[in-house]
Amino acid sequence: MNVGVKHYGNTLRVSVGGELDMKVADQFRRELDGLLTKYPETNLLLDFTRVGFIDSSALGVILGRYKLLSKAGRIMVISGVQPQVERILELSGIMKIIGVYPRETDALSQLS
Prior knowledge:
46% of the residues lie in helices and 32% in strands. The protein has a 5-stranded mixed beta sheet, sandwiched between helices. The protein is globular, with a radius of gyration of 12 Å. It has a domain at 1-12 and 31-80. The protein has helices spanning 25-38, 56-71, 83-92, 94-97, 104-111; strands at 2-8, 11-20, 43-54, 76-79, 99-101. It is an alpha/beta fold.
């Protein structure tokens, strides 16, 4: 897993690459928590363009961060999911509560 970060005003864009599975879920959680602590007033855009696989442990990390952000009145969206990842997000029900957009520009328009 690799992570890239860009900060745009009130939005934190976290680009993730690789496989999000139980091997990296704890690292993924720590990195997101550190960023959300560093930027406490920002919304979160997870860019999954380079994510090829996701499992239930990573889904738990995503849902946990969503709950934290929601409690603070902040928004979280996901962009650029590959078809196999989109299917997992759909089956898990995440797409019913977190906005998932094909392109980053679509996701950013929801955060402004």
